[in-house]
Design brief:
Blueprint: H1 2-25, H2 31-49, H3 55-59, H4 67-73, H5 95-114, H6 118-135, H7 143-154, H8 165-171, H9 187-212, H10 215-219, H11 222-227, H12 244-264, H13 271-289, H14 292-301, H15 308-315, H16 317-323, H17 328-331, H18 333-340
Helix pairs in contact: 2-5, 2-6, 2-7, 2-14, 5-6, 6-7, 7-9, 7-14, 9-12, 12-13, 13-14
Length: about 350
């Protein structure tokens, strides 16, 4: 009896360990993280550029948000001091240096988007984005945390392997034609994708649980209140005010979808449907709320669940693979199955 129990727990721990290693460390195609790099890079460029108008008014000496004022605003209790948030903009207050640092930040984000020296520019772009967020945290909304999180996870991945200048430069090296056509699967790419997947799933669940704690969402009128915000909406849908059934169904449908996405996105059969519905839902939410950047990033985050082989077929990159030696996952169904979950 005791031996049977010991054998059971031995098999249990072995299965858990093998499942854990398979989940996190199965080599994945870096094409997915390369695609996400382009999305995050464009968003980072747009974010930094958005500070161009009024840069000195906000951050220069004598501006609207001096460093000491920001620190006082961020204090949880008067006199206790704010939590330390590093930003190189805290040490720059002259207009000339501010503009130089601003232009440099834009250039770094552009290089990251293009995929030049990606290992370096990924970390540098994260520092640039965090510096603007930490310099004026009261200006941040839903968009900034999602952007910083996405770039942070991409820093651990070979996100410059495809769709990048780094790849073009690598292909020009002698003997590159023998290697660049094969998708070099990487465990670090899988780790980054798993981190993005778990974070996105948790974010959906958090949004749903938050809405479940709101009376407005429970009563079914939340979408009407969003439509009525004339200062932020992109499209006026207030003509729907007489259709209470549609407004209530829309409101409860948003909560239901967020719950289903957070829980069922791990199911391969439900995954394509949820990713497709997310495009529809966040497009409508962008029109109603005006949170275009946030909605784009949340929608693009779903690409973390799309295998690299599928994205390759969308971009026509699989033809290059076939002409240069073939994709190992296509010749090995087990390899494809192991990578599809990434």
């Amino acid at each position: 009896m005791i031996n049977a129990i010991q054998q059971y727990f031995a098999r249990l721990t072995q299965a858990i360990g093998e499942g854990w290693n398979r989940f996190w460390f199965t080599p994945a195609d870096p094409f997915t993280v390369s695609f996400l790099r382009v999305i995050a890079g464009v968003a980072a460029v747009a974010f930094v550029v958005s500070h161009t108008f009024g840069l000195t008014d906000w951050f220069a000496s004598g501006g609207w948000l001096p460093v000491d004022t920001v620190q006082r605003v961020m204090e949880t209790e008067p006199g206790e001091g704010a939590a330390y948030q590093w930003s190189y903009l805290n040490y720059i207050d002259s207009p000339g240096l501010l503009w130089a640092a601003h232009v440099a930040g834009i250039a770094i984000a552009v290089l990251f988007t293009l995929g030049l020296f990606t290992r370096i520019t990924a970390v540098a772009t994260l520092l640039v984005v965090l510096s603007y967020i930490h310099r004026a945290p009261m200006l941040a909304a839903q968009f900034e945390p999602v952007l910083a999180t996405m770039i942070f996870y991409l820093c651990f991945t070979p996100c410059g392997r495809y769709l990048s200048v780094d790849r073009c430069l690598a292909m020009r090296k002698p003997g590159a034609e023998l290697t660049t056509g094969k998708p070099d699967r990487s465990w670090s790419a899988n780790v980054g994708l798993r981190l993005l997947q778990t974070h996105l799933s948790a974010l959906y669940l958090m949004m749903a649980i938050t809405k479940l704690g709101s009376t407005t969402w429970w009563e079914g009128g939340a979408m009407w209140w969003l439509m009525a915000q004339s200062q932020s909406r992109l499209v006026d849908l207030t003509f729907l005010r007489s259709n209470l059934f549609l407004i209530n169904a829309w409101t409860h449908g948003v909560v239901l979808f967020e719950l289903c996405f957070g829980l069922l996105i791990w199911n391969r059969l439900a995954r394509p449907l949820l990713i497709g519905l997310s495009v529809v839902m966040w497009t409508l939410m962008a029109l109603v709320t005006g949170l275009v950047g946030f909605c784009i990033l949340i929608t693009a985050g779903g690409a973390a669940f799309i295998p690299g082989s599928v994205l390759r077929s969308w971009f026509g990159a699989d033809r290059d693979v076939d002409q240069n030696g073939g994709d190992a996952s296509r010749r090995n169904p087990k390899g494809e199955a192991a990578t599809a979950a990434a």
